[in-house]
Every structure is written in C-alpha cells, then in structure tokens.
Write the structure tokens for this entry.
Amino acid sequence: MIRSIAILALAYLASLASAADLLNVSYDVAREVYKDVNPAFAATPAGQGVVIKQSHDGSAKQARAVIEGLDADVVTMNSASDIEQIAKAGLIAADWAGRLPHRSSPSYSTHLLLVKQGNPKGIADWGDLAKPGVQIVVVNPKTGANGKYTYLAALAWAKRQPGASDDSAKAFLKAVFANVLALEKGGRAATTTFAQRGLGDVLITFESEVFRIEQEFPGKFQRVVPSVSVRADNPVAWVDRYVAKKGSAATAKAYLEFLYTGPAQEVFAKNFIRPTDEAVLAKHAATFAKLELVTVEDAFGGWAAAQKTHFDDGGWFDQLYQSK
C-alpha cells in the first residue's frame, strides 16, 4: 500500500513537472527575443518553476514539424498562414486568432533591404532589385514566411507602378528572382550567406535582423528603407491537442498572455521588433524605420488567398522562379 501511494505521488509530481515545461516552436530569427522573454516570464508568479525550451527554423518548416508530431505547447510564428496550416490539421482551434488581442499578434515587423557599405549597386527601392547584375539573398517563400513577405512587398511595389497589371507584376518579380543568388531555408541562413560569407549585393529580411547585422558588423553594411513594405504580424497560439495531452494548457496560455504585458512589450522593442502596445511603440519610435506598411489582408485578400495564388504548388512563384 505504501509503495503504491509512493508511486502515485511520484506520478503526480511528474505530471506537475510536465505541465510546468513548455516547448515554444518559433521562426528562425526569433532566437534572441525569446532568450530575453523567457526569463522575464519566469520571474512572474505564473512563470515560477516553468522551463521553456525553444525550437527555431524556417516558419513553414516549423509548422510542418508540429503537424508531423513535434509536440509544441505554443507556436510563435511570423505569419498567420503557418498557424492556419496547423489549425487545418486539427491541432489548434479554428478560432485561434480571436483568443488573444490584435488577432493573436503581440508584435510585428516589416522588411528592409541591407546592402554593403557605400551601396555600390545604388539600391534605393524595390525596383532596383530587377536591374541586371544585382545579386540578391532571400529566404525561400516555400520554406519561410520571411521569403513570403519579401515576395509580397516587392509585389506591392510593382502594383503601384503606372499602368501596372498582373502581367507587368509577374515580369517584375521574374526579373527580381532571376537575380537571386541564394534562396535560403530561413532568415538566419540568409544572414550567414550575406553577412558572414560576404555573398550577394543585397539581403532582404526582417527589420530586426537588419539591426542585428548592423550591430554585429559595424561599418560593413547599411540599410535601405524602401517606399513601401508589408506589415509582418507575429501571431502566437497554444497548440490545443498537445497542451491537452501534456496538461500544460494553463501555463501555455499564461505564457502567451505575458507577451502582451509591458515588460514583454519592452523586450520586443529592445530586440527591434515592433510592439503592438502603442505607448511602448511610441516610446521607441525613433528606433524603427519610417515607411508605408500594407497588410496582407488589404493588399492581397488575406493569407489564404495569398497562399493559394502565389505560394501553393503551381502558383505565381513556381511559374516565375527557375532555380539555377
């Protein structure tokens, strides 16, 4: 009897430990921000004793991994399309975007261009990326939302040109992607190719990554702020099926709710990611580039429409891109 009680007690304690551990499956260039977010959460009453593990890779690849069995408690992505794929697989509730403020996006970013110091190729806006002889480093739109945003931002620029049509936009995008030197699987791989290996004339990536490269390689690169770019929301969700199995639902929800608090919003801003709290954003306004941002919903009919038209097999991207 005593032995049975002891076994039950150990099982109970193990279940508590399991519920206090979280796996956050996230996109490639969010490593640094969650290194700061996680201890801040652990210092709160809700985070006491919680061990948070991180997994980072290209966002589309991460979504597939969760669908295939990577038992994430939470996913913190850089596009709603990746979480929608997990929801379609039945792992996350269909109404996930309405469970937290700002359509479950506590932060957002956008895309800038990064060139070598002195800007030898004279890159000033998206149109210059189609010039002969320009070598571009980007993320593959098939493996990461970073690449999808690059493609959509260039398309948004093309659609604003005089006399623009689907044919002219396709021709522009085809010329841009013909200049792609490296189509990387994720944002950090693109950074390595451009900043560390010194390949290419221009890197297109998240604003936060541009800041980090400038800090790590002072005087070697300079940013180019385009006339228009796409608002890149960073949506989050707890993974219903896995938190139910692991007994971690309450902790997972508390962790994501923490992302909207003042301390976490400050962490985002200090990591060069735009907070959704307007007061915190205003406090750090001088940090972020001034440019027009369009949304995927307004400019492209939402992520479902954009995915089907541009990134699904046989879509615009497949039609215009020819691998070297």
Summary: Residues 111-230+291-320 form a domain with the D-Maltodextrin-Binding Protein; domain 2 fold (CATH 3.40.190.10). Residues 2-19 form the longest helix (18 residues). The radius of gyration is 21 Å.
